[in-house]
Amino acid sequence: MSGIPAEVVPLAVATAVSPLPLVVLLVVLLTPRAVPNGLALAAGWAIALLVVGAVTVTLVGSGAGLDERGTVVSAVEVLVGLLFLLLAARQWSRRPRGGVEAIVPQWLLVADQSTPLRAFAMGAVLVIANPKNLALAVAAAGAVAGASAESRTRAWALVLFAALGTAGLAVPLGLRISLGTRADGLLSRWRRWLVVHGTPVACGLLAAIGWLLLLRGATA
To answer: Model pTM?
Structure first.
């Protein structure tokens, strides 16, 4: 779609395959109220992406001309790129080594007691309180604000980012809805794989997106 920056798509893909919300969703989908809780978590995630994006676009675009927006967006991309590289290095240094199992956070162990309202809040918190996911949403919204001054184009771009950024959650959720409890075995295997391999995957994504944003912001 004309006016929507190309950077939105890779940032949305990186958001969609973020391991942490996928692990949380897989835990929720193995609970007795799997579908309502899963839908609520995905809704909280998608709405939080939209809200963060809208706030960022408003802050970056308010009272600024095109040249000023471009400067602000470049600065945001450089800062977010550096943040991603630092987070990648930090997570890589803390990864489990020598066959040691990853430590499952205590708050994740109680995710199976979620209600739809709690799951919705958890989905929103996974965007707002997680530096990586928050930075991805801010970076995408910054690119949107710098690419177009039209409110309609910006809105479509943010909706596209939120939709693509939620696609990763839609896959296991769709399986659980369509297959019911027959999907439990597959979902359990996916959860175990993500717990073991989620950190290396996240580090690779953070490093790749970080370099992309850093180079783009520095050469803009």
So the answer is: 0.80
SS3 62: coil
Query: Residue 97 — φ and ψ, nearest 5°?
Result: -125, 160
**Residue 83 CB partners (closer than 8 Å, separation 6+):** 131, 135, 210
Tell me the C-alpha distance between 22 and 16, whole Å.
9
Cβ–Cβ under 8 Å, residues 2 and 88: no
Q: What is the pLDDT of residue 124?
A: 95
Alpha carbon distance 153, 160 (integer Å): 10
- Cβ atoms of 17 and 97 closer than 8 Å: no
Is the pLDDT at 144 greater than 60? The verdict is yes
Yes or no: say if 49 and 137 are a contact pair by the CB < 8 Å rule.
yes
Distance CA 86, CA 110 (A): 30
> Cα(29)–Cα(50) distance, rounded to whole angstroms?
24
Residues 6+ apart with CB under 8 A from 201: 17, 19
- Which tokens hold the place of 123? 């989905």
Instruction: Report the C-alpha gap between 87 and 116 in whole angstroms.
Output: 31
The answer to whether residue 67 scores a pLDDT higher than 60 is: no
Q: How many residues does the chain have?
A: 220
